Amino acid sequence: MSNKILVFIDQKNGKANQASWEALGAGLMLAGKLGGGVTALALGSGSQQVAAEALHYGADEALYCDDATLADYRAEPYASLVSSLARGAEAVLFPTTTAGREVAAMAAVDLDTGVMPDVTALEVEGGQIVATRPVYAGKLIAKTVCSAKPVMITTRIRAFAKPTADASRSGSPRAVAPAVSEADITTRVTGYTGSAGGVSLNDAAVIVSGGRGVSNNPKLSPPAGLDEKQAEIWRAQQGFRLVGDLASVLGGAVGASRAAVDAGYIPYEHQVGQTGKVVSPDLYIAAGISGAIQHQAGMRTSKVIVAINKDPEAPIFKMARFGVVGDLYEILPALTEALRKRLGK
Fold it and tell me: Whole domain around residue 76: which residue ranges?
């Protein structure tokens, strides 16, 4: 590969994860400082279409592989192909998605190099790539370098600007052959289970999250016949309904603290925190969330944080730009109604 920077475009059925274009933007910036160009790589069904789109976003070259072995995402064939194409590159960038993280790690093993994960800024000093990334659950920011090549980098979602697409920038994506045969792949995809629809936490510009506090409404009378735990979950579901209403008005996504997920109030896919999703929305509203370090690690880079909590000493207020001390069962409906009128919804 003649270009110094390779960017993995995470896509499915011809639709790229928007974080991939942010990673491409970071790659274009690095290429401008290092000299050389950027090669975009898309794998799987519909990848030719996405590769063509990458050229519109500024990639100098676009590669794709729409082989049957890559039709469903499996880490082995994806990482093997990335590894074979990345030899000789200066750096390989991935969005910090599930596939991006996994492929980056496996390809790094193949290439005997290291990974700089969840990077929030990149610069070049003395011809060396320097990455800025949060460490210790986001309590510190570190600048990191990797002496081995290629440097493997995963970019934090919404940390880098998405380049502007220009249809006049075009070309012919080039097909590449898979690196392994079906017989050499140990995993098989046997089916899929659908999840609830809605705005993705990773892509959302607005996130409204609920914590254990959503269950603390003594005025609610649960249906007869429920035991204590079932009654608690029922009250929490009513609270999360209010969280969802506000998120819907704002066109945002619903998040949750680990405590709410562990208590069974809401599925894990909504969890924000060190062991859940790491998000960077323009607006993050935390309702009934105390703000433990584990949760802060997942949302501290949000541009504006609003906290709603009955406890004025809750840690979440220390990092919030705006704080409301009060009962979320009173505040959320009033806020939702006011925004609905203001936005004409």
Answer: 5-184
